Structures are given as C-alpha cells and as structure tokens.
Q: What sequence folds into this?
C-alpha cells in the first residue's frame, strides 16, 4: 500500500471530485484514478462510488480514509518535530479553543508567538470542549483550550491550568426571568444547553451542584454565537461566560440574572496529548499562553472566583 495511493484517496474523499483531487495532488485525473484503483484491487473492494456529480466513499472507503488521514497527519507531525528538534522552527500548530479562550487568550498568545516564530502557521478551530477532546485524540489539533473537564483518564492528557472563569445565568434584556433570584425559581424556565446532547452541559452541572434536578433542555446549541442569538431573541435562559457578558455587544441584548446560588466556576486550561509535548513548538506555545493568561489577570479582564460551585 503506497503513500501516494493513500494521498490520492484522501484527496478524492475530501474534494468529492476526481478532477479537483487530481489538481490538489498535482496529477492528471487518469493518474489519480489509477492510484485509487490500485488500492481497490489490493483490498479487493470498492472504495469510491462514482457518479455524474462526483465521488463519495463507500463504507470500506470511509474506514480506509479515516485511518489514512490519521497516518499522514502523524507523519506530517513527525517531520515537523524532527525539523524543530534540529533548530528549524517551521510547520503548523492547530489549536482548538472555546469562544472564551478565543476572546481572552488566543489574540495575545498568537501575537507574541507569531513574533518569536514567524515561520510556524497557526490554525484556530472554535469548538466545544467535548469536541476538542475528540480532536486531540485523533490528532486534528495539537492543543485544546477550554474548561478543564472533570474525570479525565489519568495519563491520557497533559493539562496545564491557565486561569479561572465564571459562568453566569443570563436572559434576554427585559425578560420576565430577570426578576428571579434563585435557581429554584428558574427551574421552569426554558433552558438552552451548550453540549453535544440534551442531558449534559454547564447548566445541568450547575443545578446538580446545588442539589437540584436539572431542567430539561428546551434547545441545544453547539456555539456561543448560537447561544447569544437564541437567548437574545427569545424567552430562553442559559449560562454564559462572564467575560463575554462584559462585552458591549452582549450587553445590548442580554442581562445577568443575579441568582443567590452564584454562577459556575471553571478552570480554563491547555490540554495536550503527552507525546505532543515532544514537539518544541507546542512547548513554546504553552509558554506564550501562560504569559497571555497572566496579562488577562493583571488587566482584570476576567473577574476572579466568586460564589458558586467550582468545576476543575
């Protein structure tokens, strides 16, 4: 099984077109088709379904694509690591970050890191922390920035705490729920959860920490923009990072509900796989993140810990 054939398959799956895939890898379309067919003969199975509109992977093709993509990604990382260990700071870092980290930590870290290492490209993926862990495991990202989740398997990840963060209960400005002063009063509200499912998320964690039954999710979103939009234009309530609520744009549409129970206290951290730390660029980027977190703390951009349960 040749690497060139695997690269041809990867390009075909990702481009959805043999013509576009051939252009991407610098081959003629017949030459790329030949490489894919060699794989199909070697495995005695069809890998791509061809039609007038393009190509899609078969079930077998999807399996090989996923494994080939992971293998080529690891090879790329190995080449970058070898070059960096030799003193050539080149390559790319992929960073998965929750919106709070994108707002507070990423801009300064990118600025200072980019000044020190101008030949290393940085790619930022905004994701929920749950998706970030999956991306870490599969090698899609080198570093995940977000709340440190409880219950991580010992030894699976390297975790470096960076700064505290507060999640506060919010509603649309002028909402009837703004008059509530306890979580118990908000149990009947229509809650928006930010999670991959409707039974988990920070809102559920907040209620559980106070010995209350979490309300059912009236809506589930996977982005802060979706959360802002839904709460700001309806009578839903949800949890929002306090630092984002301090932004003038959020304050135009939302307000904090000052519940006596307090908000949810989180610890924002940088998470990597232990072997990723062997990559010099990752170690340097973590140092720049710590500097950025120190600057945030010094400037008072994120308030310190307040009342409320803590998750770390």
A:
């Amino acid at each position: 099984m040749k690497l060139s054939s695997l690269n041809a398959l990867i390009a075909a799956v990702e481009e959805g077109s043999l013509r576009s895939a051939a252009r991407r890898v610098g081959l003629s379309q017949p030459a790329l088709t030949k490489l894919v067919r060699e794989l199909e003969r070697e495995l005695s199975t069809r890998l791509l379904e061809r039609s007038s509109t393009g190509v899609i992977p078969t079930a077998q093709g999807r399996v090989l694509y996923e494994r080939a993509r992971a293998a080529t990604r690891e090879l790329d990382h190995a080449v970058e690591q070898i070059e960096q260990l030799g003193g050539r700071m080149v390559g790319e870092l992929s960073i998965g970050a929750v919106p709070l980290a994108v707002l507070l930590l990423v801009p300064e870290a990118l600025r200072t890191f980019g000044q020190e290492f101008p030949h290393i490209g940085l790619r930022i993926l905004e994701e929920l922390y749950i998706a970030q862990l999956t991306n870490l495991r599969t090698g899609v990202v080198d570093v995940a920035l977000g709340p440190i989740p409880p219950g991580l398997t010992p030894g699976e990840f390297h975790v470096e705490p960076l700064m505290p963060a507060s999640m506060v209960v919010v509603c649309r400005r002028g909402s009837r729920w703004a008059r509530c002063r306890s979580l118990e009063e908000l149990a009947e509200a229509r809650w928006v959860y930010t999670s991959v499912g409707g039974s988990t998320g920070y809102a559920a964690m907040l209620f559980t920490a106070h010995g209350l039954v979490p309300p059912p999710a009236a809506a589930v979103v996977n982005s802060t923009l979706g959360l802002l939009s839904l709460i700001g234009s309806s009578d839903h309530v949800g949890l929002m990072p306090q630092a984002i609520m301090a932004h003038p744009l959020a304050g135009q549409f939302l307000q904090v509900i000052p519940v006596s129970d307090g908000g949810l206290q989180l610890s924002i951290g940088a998470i990597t796989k232990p072997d990723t730390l062997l990559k010099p660029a990752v170690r340097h980027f973590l140092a720049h993140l710590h500097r950025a977190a120190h600057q945030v703390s010094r400037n008072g951009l994120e308030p310190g810990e307040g009342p409320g349960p803590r998750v770390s």
